[in-house]
Design goal:
It is a single chain. By secondary structure, the chain is α/β, with parallel strands linked by helices. The chain has a domain at 91-109 and 224-428: Rossmann fold. The chain has 19 helices and 15 strands. It has a 6-stranded mixed beta sheet with strand order 3-4-14-9-10-13, sandwiched between helices. The chain has a 5-stranded parallel beta sheet with strand order 8-5-6-7-15, with helices on both faces. A two-stranded antiparallel sheet has the order 1-2. The longest helix is centred in the N-terminal third of the chain and has 19 residues, at 112-130. The structure holds pyridoxal-5'-phosphate (PLP).
Length: 468
């Protein structure tokens, strides 16, 4: 499979190339040149298959030329044998129409494990093949950092430096990063905000002094391999709910537009999806873009759903490209305008293309807490606040008849409630306990380096500790 950039001028790459590159050299994001399609019969034949087998089947067309069938099968078996639930991403029924798809049974209790566990193995495989080493530098407001560290700890040829804003991530999130003992993992607690940390990381990727010495790698969801791995659980859940003979709808708690874009890819591959509901918190740039065509960034408001406190949703560019006729030059122009003014209008083609499948909804803090209370009172389920944003949107969509009553509506449960115990306890009066497999998190020793907030301090740390 060949991959092309959304901005039209970077050279096409194969799967191995896009996995190691992350961002395209023209500033765009990589997408497959065309969508592989499964027929109804091919989809029907996938019913009842174990998760790892389904994963290999769905991902195979995207990796041809870079992984053999045997390599892919073995990779999927290893990665998805390591989850805390035999079904990897089990469905839970809430009432006649509503379901939860639990995506938090990986090692760090958020859906990001589903893709990052695979990415860690892909990095190792491809770097060994090339005889190269890579230094991953990332910034996190919580979930990405722990999932990425867990995915690469102890792996050959890759090291990771993860920046988090000192004192601004939850205790569980911080400990999931700092209690990992591996020689290739470095945690930096920096003075400053997440945005400061993120700005340092972006600057490092453009710093010629760093580029001359190190091969830097990215683990955020601009990496195509992450989205590809997330397509699998749309198929897995829809097959259980009757696909391809019955449609399914999804409500997806959304920040960077990665998880919900994977649902769009599943639909392009032939999965009959009735609707994708983009659920945002009060940081609602995507809701405004999809409902009014207004994609304009404001300031970020801190909420009880920190993994969705985001102003610019990187992966939205992939949708604009695909819906807008795949015109890289035009999109490059549109994105240049956005980068200057922090605002842009969607074209009519982009709006109509998106509206065919997407609906958006926004939940404020009160509505989110109400969804948590509804789930606990009506179904006995304790859910995390991010899932709560999704469930609010799902309940509102069925009430407004945006999704017909006979179509199953699945809310993606993106994190385990024990990751956000304070917010959950405030909403439902119950303090969720950490599952047994991470139970001694608070007994383990923490390791991290405190560093001042300057770019130079971070860069010097990275250069001094890279072994490559
Ligand atoms: C990352 C994250 C999200 C947002 O996912 P995107 O792919 O960025 O849209 C939602 N919920 C949780 C718990 C997350 O960690």
């Amino acid at each position: 499979m060949e991959y092309i950039s959304t901005r039209g001028s970077a050279p096409p790459l194969d799967f191995e190339g896009v996995t190691l590159a992350g961002l395209a050299s023209d500033g765009g994001l990589y997408l497959p040149r065309e969508w592989p399609r499964l027929t109804e019969d091919e989809i029907r034949a996938l019913r009842g298959r174990p998760y790892h087998e389904l994963a290999a089947t769905i991902m195979r067309p995207f990796v041809v030329g870079s992984l053999t069938d045997d390599e892919l099968d073995a990779l999927c078996e290893t990665v998805y044998g390591n989850f805390g639930h035999a079904a990897v991403t089990p469905l839970v029924q809430l009432d006649e129409q509503h379901w939860l798809l639990e995506l938090f049974h990986g090692p760090t209790l958020a859906f990001k494990d589903v893709a990052l566990q695979l990415l860690g193995h892909l990095f190792e495989t491809f770097l060994a093949r090339r005889g190269e080493k890579m230094m991953i530098v990332g910034a996190t407001s919580g979930d990405t950092g722990s999932a990425a560290i867990n995915a690469v700890a102890g792996r050959d040829n890759v090291e990771i430096v993860m920046l988090h804003p000192k004192g601004r991530v939850s205790d569980v999130q911080r400990r999931q990063m700092t209690t990992v003992r591996a020689a290739n993992v470095y945690n930096l607690a920096i003075d400053g905000s997440f945005d400061d940390a993120q700005a340092h990381v972006k600057r490092m990727f453009r710093d010629p002094e760093v580029a001359g010495k190190l091969k830097l790698g990215a683990v955020n969801s601009i990496n195509w391999a992450r989205l590809m791995a997330q397509v699998v659980y749309y198929f897995y859940s829809a097959l259980q709910l009757g696909a391809p003979d019955r449609k399914t709808a999804y409500s997806v708690p959304t920040g960077n537009f990665g998880d919900v874009f994977a649902g769009y890819v599943a639909a392009q591959m032939g999965l009959p999806i009735e609707r994708l509901i983009v659920a945002t918190n009060v940081n609602d740039i995507l809701h405004r873009a999809l409902s009014e065509g207004d994609y304009s960034a404001g300031g970020v408001t801190a909420t009880m759903t920190p993994s969705m406190d985001i102003q610019v949703s990187s992966n939205f560019e992939r949708l604009l490209f695909d819906c807008g006729g795949r015109d890289g030059a035009a999109l490059a122009e549109q994105m240049r305008g956005f980068e200057q003014s922090k605002a842009m209008r969607l074209t009519n083609a982009q709006r109509e293309g998106a509206a065919a499948l997407f609906t958006s909804m926004r939940a404020d803090q009160t509505e989110t807490a109400r969804a948590l209370a509804w789930a606990y009172r009506e179904t006995g389920q304790v859910i995390d606040p991010h899932t709560g944003v999704g469930l609010h949107a799902a309940l509102a969509a069925s009430e407004d008849a945006l999704v017909p009553a006979e179509v199953p509506l699945v809310t993606l449960a993106t994190a385990h409630p024990a990751k956000f115990p304070d917010a959950v306890e405030r909403a439902v009066g119950v303090r969720p306990a950490l599952p047994g497999r991470v139970g001694d998190l608070f007994g383990r020793e923490e390791h991290f380096t405190e560093i001042d907030g300057s770019y130079e301090a971070v860069r010097d740390f990275v250069l001094a500790n890279a072994s490559a």
